[in-house]
Amino acid sequence: MAEPDTPAGRDLLRRHPDLSADEIGEVELQARGRGLQADADRRERVVDALRHLLTDDQRAAITAVLRIDPDVIASLDDAKIRLILGQLADPRMNLDREAREAASKASQRYLDEIM
Q1: Is 93 in a helix, a strand, or coil?
Q2: Rounded to whole angstroms, what are the CA distances from 15 to 5, 19, 31, 32, 33?
């Protein structure tokens, strides 16, 4: 890695010249991962709080958006999107957090199969 990607990474490298750019890059990567996980946790809390107010179709749409990368959604044709949303609207998907995590893994395997 040539140089850190973020201003904070470049500042850290400037203040600590004993660290390599690769080490700073690793810290940046870990920070991005923690940020993404925090965002995902926040979204899950919002969905959990609203779950009782949403229809099955609304929950399915939220689940689809949270579970599938937007670039992947953009690459799918309408028939595949309808198939995925139909699977996500299944009442069995209205699960507690642990069951949703297991279902998420199953959904990823399903998505891998249809791609």
Answers
A1: helix
A2: 16, 9, 18, 21, 24
CA atoms of 57 and 46, how far apart (whole Å): 17
For CA atoms 28, 30, 33, 35, the dihedral sign is: negative
Residue 9 has pLDDT above 70, yes or no: yes
Percentage of the chain lying above the pLDDT 70 cut: 83
Residue with tokens 């979204």: 43
Q: Is 21:2 a contact under the CB 8 Å cutoff?
A: yes
pLDDT at 5: 79
Helix (H, G, I), strand (E, B) or coil at 1: coil
Measured distance CA(25)–CA(17) in Å, rounded: 14
User: Residue 24 class from Cβ within 10 Å (0-12 exposed, 13-18 middle, 19+ buried)?
Assistant: buried
Q: How far apart are alpha carbons 18 and 105 in whole angstroms?
A: 41
